[in-house]
Structure formats: C-alpha cells, structure tokens
Amino acid sequence: MQEEPYFVLCILYLVYYIQYTKYRIQTMPHRFFNFFLNLLFPQECLYCHREIDRSYPLCQKCEESIPLFSSWKAPSSIKYLSALGAASSYQNPILQKTIHYFKYRGITSLQFPLSQLLIKFIEQNNYLSFFAKKDIYVIPIPLSKRKLRQRGFNQAELLAQSVALYFHWNYSPNLLQRIKNNPPQAQLKNKEERKNNVKGIFCFPSSTQTLKGKIIVLIDDVFTTGATMEEAARVLKKTRAKKIIGLVLAK
User: Fold this and answer.
1) What is d(CA 235, CA 232) in angstroms, rounded to the nearest whole number?
2) Domain coordinates of the chain in residue numbers?
3) Strand spans (E) along 130-175
4) Dist. CA 209–CA 37, nearest whole Å
5) Which end of the chain is more exposed for a tag (fewer CB within 10 A), N or C?
C-alpha cells in the first residue's frame, strides 16, 4: 500500500513530461510523434488549461489578455541607455507564467508569442522607425557559459533573433560577451548587491566590427533593477555607438 503514492507520482510526472515534450520537439522527423502525443494527451494552455490546438501552450484568449505598454521611457537611473522599452508588466500573471515556462522549463516554442509581444510593441511605438535599418544592431544579453550549458539555450538570443529577422535589422550576438560566471541576479534582492554582482561580467571583443554611429538594441527578457542592462550598456558605450536602447518583455 505504501508504494501506491509513489506510483501515482511517477505517473503524474510522466504525463507532465510527455505533455510538454511536444513543445520542445519542433523538427520535421518528430511531427508524427507529436501527432500521436496529441491524440493521447490533448494540448492545453499553460495558464487557463483550456484545450488548444496550437504549436505552443498558450491559448489565443490568454495571449490577447496581455496588455502592451504605450511608450518608450527615458530611464534616468541608467545613464548609458537612451531609451528603455518594456512590452508589458511583469505583474501580469499570464505573462509572468509564460516567461517562467519559457525560461526555466525549456518550452522554447513560447519564443513565438513572446517575440510577437516585442514586435507589436515596436510597431505601435514607432521610436525605432526613425533610424535606418542598416544602422540598427540587435544584441541579446549573453548568458554565462555555465548557465547556457544548464539551460541549453539563451532566452534573450531567441527573442533577439525573432525581432531582428522580422524588422530586417542586423543580428549580432557575438558583439557582447560574458566573461564571468556570476551568481544569479534572482537570488539577490538588494539593488546595490545586484549592481556589484554584475560588475565586470561583460566585454566587447576588440577584434569585432566598429559600432561607431550605430544604434544598438539591447534585448533581455525581464528588467528588474536594471543592473544587468546597465552594465551591458556601459561596456557597449565604449564602442562609440550613437544610441543604446534597451528592450525587454516585462518590467
């Protein structure tokens, strides 16, 4: 009798694993596998749990319930940024859970709806349309090598790829490199601790192209105290770029 709870937990874990495996597997050879998974375990929305038939686990109603911010901001607390754009608020429970599943549970298919939020925000707030496309360089905030090995992907890179491809901007993931494995910012609540934690973690390789007079769009998923974005912008400012603009999903 004592083995029953353990057996039930194993079954529940198996169902959960299979349910979200289909969102990780996106290549052609696995489409038939996904078809049979969908027959056995119908897809559901990660937030409202409504049954859906989409390539990612977020229903249309929940996706459309994430409101967009109306404008870019001039962040007085970060002197190296010309402007900061946040697509929406991290207080929105749907967006918060979607980012969590994307970032920590490896549901990379959520790249599509999340990058669409950034794209819609940019289109509705035409600040970036004043610059020539050839002069805009999209740079994702890089992960440490250790965290990249653990997670298997950089969420900022996936978002940056989608945005750059959509607007035909330059995508330049190697123009900013992370050179230190610092402790996760999420473990630190104090603003000063976060600022000290990211000091000296980035570098701009001297062998790369010049960015003098260019527009840099620095992309990350979440803006909390801004310590990581500020340190990245500080390093990139040395390239003599015309403007450094921050862009995140949520603030």
Assistant:
1) 5
2) 60-250
3) 136-140, 170-171
4) 47
5) N
Tokens, residue 41 = 């375990």
Q: Which of 183, 195, 193 is closest to 229 using CA atoms? A: 195
pLDDT surpasses 70 at 6? no
Find all residues with CB under 8 Å of 216, minimum gap 6, and list them.
137, 139, 236, 239, 241, 243, 244, 245
> Are 99 and 221 in contact, with CB atoms under 8 Å apart?
yes
- For the cut 60, the answer to whether the pLDDT of residue 200 exceeds it is yes
d(CA 14, CA 81): 46
| Segment 29-82, tens digit of pLDDT | 444 555 455 555 568 899 999 999 888 999 999 999 999 998 998 877 778 899
- Split at pLDDT 50, 70, 90, the class of 18 is very low
Q: Which fold has domain 60-250?
A: Rossmann fold (3.40.50)
* Residue 216 in tokens: 């840099």
Mean of pLDDT values over 3-13: 54
Which residue matches tokens 């473990």?
A: 187
The CA-CA-CA angle for residues 11, 101, 58, to 5°, reads 90
What gap in Å lies between CA 173 and CA 208, rounded to an integer?
Answer: 11
Q: Is the pLDDT of residue 21 over 80?
A: no
Contacts 24+ apart (CB under 8 A), 131-134: 131/215, 131/243, 133/167, 133/168, 133/169, 134/170
Q: Are strands 177-178 and 202-203 parallel, antiparallel or unpaired?
A: antiparallel
Give the total residue count for the chain.
251
136-169 pLDDT tens trace: 999 999 998 888 988 899 999 999 999 999 999 9
